[in-house]
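explain this.
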Amino acid sequence: MPFFEHIQHKIQSWEQVSRTAASWRATGDRIVFTNGCFDILHYGHIHYLSAARDLGDRLIVGMNSGQSVSRLKGPSRPINDEMTRTHLLASLLFVDAVVIFEQDTPLELIRLIQPDVLVKGGDWKPEQIVGSADVLARGGQVYSLPFVDGYSTTGIERRIRDGV
């Protein structure tokens, strides 16, 4: 399969990702789920997503839709459109699937996928992570991974705006 088709194959609908997760689970793969806006992909994201993938065999990334990003981050966001953000995420070797969600939280998506491991960035305590109760109730694990200092989309946006 040509590489670009391989990237597009990773971008899945809710129905597709549900079937994909079930298939991986049936073969004994440990499924990790994380989510975010991933508006401007940067080193902090790469470090975080790589560390998340290291916690299991497969990494599914839930990505906020453009409308969801705007509701959460404000009318000037997202900077990059959904196609750009999904393809950038899917091009990462350690990301196995990308799925867009319209809601403000990924709770419904987490319940659909039923990951073994749920991961968020260091500004969340494990018990505050949306979906943590569901994952823990099934015997899974929840992690809050540390941020890499100096890397955030908001900081990058501020530096561009301020000309720094």
Summary: The domain at 3-162 is CATH 3.40.50.620 (Rossmann fold).
